[in-house]
Design goal:
The protein is α+β, with helices and mostly antiparallel strands. 35% of the residues lie in helices and 22% in strands. The protein contains 11 helices and 17 strands. Helix 2 links the parallel strand 1 and strand 2.
């Protein structure tokens, strides 16, 4: 259930960004400093905050929203992706690459990322939500390499490309994967490109105590200064960040630009001109506030919707609906929000069911494996034909054969597959096929428990049920698995 107060706060935060952008554009128009550019400007902005498997970050999604609004005001067509997994990242990158290729040779491409980022073996990886990283090789599968995004931009053969990475935050895998380090490594730039890092190579940047990171806050401010080339923009950013962090963070750039680029073209103040008006100059009078036209309102709503329509967070759509309850896209926003809420509820129910199943397995395993206290005396009795001892029960059920596998790994992810059990003497051989992975183990039966050594630190332990099903755990009880005869 969405909390109205939380949605209202988030909505106000987003509206403030967009209103600030609209006001900035209006002031540029009134002062004659509109960023008129001949070339098309295409940007991809990604912000990941709500990590579950690693430490969450407060500011990246707010940084991305602020950067998207700023770039829109500077004439960029923006593809915005907030809190996306690996598939969402891939879709956004492909969409960005297609638009950049279609924009022509004179286009300017810009990629901005805020979130977790790590380096390994000299390569930089951007971490999407839901990434399951246990080894260095997992980065190739579970994360997005910065070089792959740069390759998309190079393939477009456009005039100029900018890559901005506010991703040098703390290493979320410290102590878990030795070869992964915090901070980012240097990237060799292609001709006509500039790559900007929020911190020097190998240095870790701070997320910031305010609503935005120190780097992004300084960058959006410097980008809107008329008449200064991009190199000077980043120099101003570096000075500001070093001052605000006490020298602990120093932004860095790698450039192979061949010409000048201005976010806001205009007349730059010369060294001989005073930076501020002289004391004798009359004070500036505020401009009269013009009424907001219906067209401006519609454009603002369209800009808001364009920036949130691909979000996977129902709170974002709640913010839109609270701001524009009768808006053009209100019905669609309601449908998308309800679908996201339903998916989250289904995921929560599925996780709860898996947890309950695991608890039941653990309880049954404990009851089976725990030594009995004061066991009842065994009374001698005359054997009868229908009285079967446990070994006879096992023989009757016959563990050999093919099984369907359903389980949950140590990270809570459900899986399924096939298994085959064969027997030689008193030893059982278990062969699993889970997706593209295969495992083999050998085991023995003691009473009604099958213990299988499959090469891990902890064996897989199954309770043999009377219906032939095997209910078990592995990884010391952290994983659960059921084998059902076919």
């Amino acid at each position: 259930m969405l909390v109205p107060g939380a949605a209202g706060f988030y909505g106000w935060m987003l509206v403030r960004y967009f209103m600030a952008m609209v006001l900035a554009v209006g002031l540029l128009v009134l002062t004659g400093l509109t960023p008129v550019v001949a070339q098309q400007r295409i940007a991809l902005v990604v912000g990941n905050s709500d990590y579950k498997l690693i430490s969450a970050l407060d500011n990246p999604k707010k940084d991305a929203a602020l950067m998207a609004a700023t770039l829109e005001g500077l004439g960029f067509e923006v593809v915005l992706a907030i809190d996306v997994d690996i598939r969402g990242m891939a879709r956004a990158v492909r969409k960005f690459g297609a638009r950049l290729r279609a924009a022509g040779d004179d286009a300017v491409g810009l990629f901005y990322y805020a979130g977790h980022g790590v380096s390994a073996r000299g390569a930089n990886y951007l971490i999407p939500l839901g990434a399951e990283i246990e080894t260095e090789s997992d980065l190739e599968i579970e994360a997005t390499s910065a070089s792959s995004i740069l390759a998309q931009m190079v393939d477009a053969r456009n005039a100029l490309n900018l890559v901005i990475l506010d991703a040098c935050r703390n290493n979320p895998y410290k102590g878990k994967v030795r070869s992964i380090s915090g901070g980012l490594a240097r990237i060799t730039t292609a001709s006509g490109a500039l790559i900007a890092f929020s911190a020097a190579p190998g240095q870790v940047a701070v997320d910031g105590d305010g609503e935005n990171s120190p780097y992004t806050q300084a960058l959006v401010k410097s980008m809107q200064i008329p008449g200064i080339p991009i190199e000077k923009v980043f120099k101003k950013v570096r000075v500001s960040v070093e001052e605000n962090t006490g020298g602990k963070q120093s932004p860095w750039e790698e450039s192979s630009l061949r010409g000048d680029f201005y976010f806001v073209p205009g007349q730059q103040t010369t060294n001989n001109a005073p930076a501020l008006p002289p004391q004798s100059a009359p004070p500036l009078q505020p401009l009269p506030q013009a009424p907001v036209s219906a067209t401006t309102k519609a454009e603002t709503e369209a800009l808001f919707w364009k920036s949130v329509k691909d979000s996977g967070d129902p709170q974002v759509f709640a913010a839109y609906l609270e701001t524009y309850p009768d808006g053009t896209f209100a019905a669609l926003a309601k449908v998308l929000m309800d679908n996201l809420i339903r998916k989250k509820q289904q995921a929560a129910e599925k996780a709860k069911a898996a947890k309950q199943a695991q608890e039941a397995i653990e309880a049954q395993r404990s009851a089976t494996l725990a030594p009995q206290q004061n066991p009842p005396a065994i009374m001698p009795m005359k054997p009868r034909r229908n009285n079967l001892t446990p070994p006879q029960i096992q023989g009757r059920l016959n563990l050999t054969g093919n099984y369907n596998v359903e389980g949950r790994n140590i990270r809570g992810k459900l899986y399924s597959g096939k298994a085959k059990i064969s027997k030689t003497g008193d030893t059982y051989r278990v062969e699993w096929k889970i997706g593209y992975n295969s495992h083999v183990g050998t085991g023995t039966v003691h009473g009604s428990v099958l213990t299988v050594d499959w090469g891990a630190n902890e064996p897989a332990i199954y309770q043999i049920m009377s219906n032939g099903q095997l209910i078990g755990t592995w990884a010391g009880g952290k994983g659960a698995e059921n084998l059902t005869p076919q």
